Amino acid sequence: MQGVSTRGDDADRLMAKIAPKHHLTRDVYDLACERVAKCFKKFDTPVVWFSGGKDSTAVLHVAMDVAVALNKPAPHVAFFDEEVIPPETVEYCDRVRRTQRVRFHWLCLPIKHRNACSSKSPWWYPYDPDCPELWARPIPEWAKVEADYPLFQREPHDKTTGMIFPPNYGTVVSIMGVRTQESLNRYQAIAYGKTGHDAFMAADHWRHVRRAYPIYDWAHDDVWYAPEKFGWDYNRAYDIMQKAGIPIHNQRCAPPYGEQPLERLWTYKSCWPELWDKMAYRVPGAATAGRYGNTAIYGHGGADTAMKPPSLSWREFINRKIEEFPEKDRAKCAKGIQRLLDDHAMYTKDPLPDSEPHPASGLCWMAVAKLAIRGDIKGRKVIGLRAQARMIRERHADGKPTR
Asked: Which of the four pLDDT bands, split at 50, 70 and 90, describes residue 74?
């Protein structure tokens, strides 16, 4: 179970410059156990954040094994029930809930989620109490709801840990299934966030809470080999996706309407048609995104300059797309785009090209426009696009073609 990268040479070269990898001959499972053991020893309350996905499954089983080895109480396991999830995920999480090896928190909370299906309604809330008639599933009787948490605020996940586990829990460590192989953004989060010798521990924290990524160095093969080797239970939704012909690296258990999952929204139509019937009405724009989510309409697929009317300049087109968002979200979209334009100006005085990245900056209007169409309100795509631009500059500096 030694993690092996599946990335291209350019991405690996960039990662090496961000922070070099140190390849070890040790087993990634043993290393993960050591890291989780540190969490159990350093913090009063270890919490495994569990989604039912393959990565959090690995973290869950490692934490349960470590708790037994150290003779510690069963770890807390927190599961955000995001309402629009496959039935196999519900069944799997219920099996975990009923085991005696964890203290399970089934959370049905109206947490703010991104809706990239619609620029006019860019947010949605699972189990929104204002529209129970639209819920895809009823709240399970054993779940905890908004009224159970006096400190709860309807914010994204990373701001809720301290509300679910307030200071009376002592020091809290959120143990999460983040792997660097998944994206450059995650690689940089580990590389820049490490503290001392604990590269798996995030430097940032919120009051009494820290975050830990004990399987950050696991590869795709590792997270699937481990359940087979150790006989772990897993989410059977992956079996459905496998039968549908979805490649392993594209199989995800995540909120379906976000900027990144939008490209895979069609998989719900293929794999869970009954659920999709409810999903299509759950948030504005879902039915349209399910059909056109991989096209230029949403800034995906083989988009070309045809997505911009000839009568508009690129800047006018981008401003128009930004204006489609609610006023309070426009500034966030504009800030990321301006950051990219500033990057280009820093590397060259040449005009920004239409569709081919400039070798000096690694950017073009096409890439910036896609960002405006998708509405990168969370700022994640900006980070990824800047990383891609950096790879293009690296290739140019090495005297290689930029395409």
From this structure: very high
Give the integer Cα–Cα distance in Å for 329 and 25. 47
Mean pLDDT for 122-137 is 94
Structural domains in the chain, sorted by start: 9-226 (3.40.50.620), 247-298 (no CATH), 305-397 (no CATH)
Highest mean pLDDT, choosing among 67-81, 106-120, 297-311, 354-368: 67-81
